[in-house]
């Protein structure tokens, strides 16, 4: 095979790769991998079980600011989660932004984790369990929920917040890490 054919084939492959991919619900891995290239912070969202007082928590990275005035934030709950019904019905919740040294807290609230077992918490004015010592905490009243594909987007009005010094815990490409400032 001549060099010109090899070059032509390489150009064809590069052009096809540059054209991008079409999301395929039957094979979500490639899209999930592409989304994972975006580094996010790590949060734990807490609330009370629907119709009860038992605490419920979940580790999420789908947290974002919506508005400063009024103070609104959002996060997205997967409808496939066993905890979805609790969060989508919760009148109030707290979002805890984790620091670089708080990976064990994140792992408590993933599938199969310890959850609240042995973790010291308090209850805020809305009776939501709150975790002390996180990098930031936003105590919210549920403002609205919106269906968003396989997730429910939950918007909260910030009633109170706390802020501490430190570096954030970061998540990207399926792994935890830390932010390094220059």
UniProtKB/TrEMBL annotation:
Q: Where is the Flavin reductase like domain?
A: 35-178
Gene3D superfamilies, sorted: Electron Transport, Fmn-binding Protein, Chain A
Q: Which UniProt keywords apply?
A: Oxidoreductase
- UniProt-listed InterPro entries: Flavin_Rdtase-like_dom, NADH-dep_flavin_reductase, Split_barrel_FMN-bd
Report the protein name in the record.
Answer: Flavin oxidoreductase
Source domain of life is: Bacteria
Q: Return the Pfam families for the record.
A: Flavin_Reduct
Instruction: List the GO molecular function terms.
Output: FMN binding; riboflavin reductase (NADPH) activity
């Amino acid at each position: 095979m001549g060099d010109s054919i090899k070059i032509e084939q390489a150009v064809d492959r590069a052009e096809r790769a540059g054209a991008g991919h079409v999301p395929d619900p039957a094979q979500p891995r490639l899209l999930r991998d592409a989304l994972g290239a975006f580094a996010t912070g790590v949060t734990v969202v807490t609330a009370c079980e629907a119709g009860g007082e038992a605490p419920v928590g979940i580790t999420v990275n789908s947290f974002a600011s919506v508005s400063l005035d009024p103070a609104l934030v959002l996060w997205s709950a997967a409808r496939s989660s066993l905890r979805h019904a609790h969060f989508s019905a919760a009148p109030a919740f707290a979002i805890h932004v984790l620091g670089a040294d708080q990976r064990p807290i994140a792992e408590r609230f993933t599938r199969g984790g310890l959850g609240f077992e042995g973790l010291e918490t308090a209850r805020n004015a809305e009776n939501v369990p709150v975790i002390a010592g996180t990098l930031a905490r936003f105590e919210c009243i549920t403002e609205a929920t919106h269906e968003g594909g396989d997730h429910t987007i939950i918007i909260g009005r910030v009633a109170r917040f706390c802020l501490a010094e430190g570096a954030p815990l970061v998540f990207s490409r399926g792994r935890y890490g830390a932010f390094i400032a220059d």
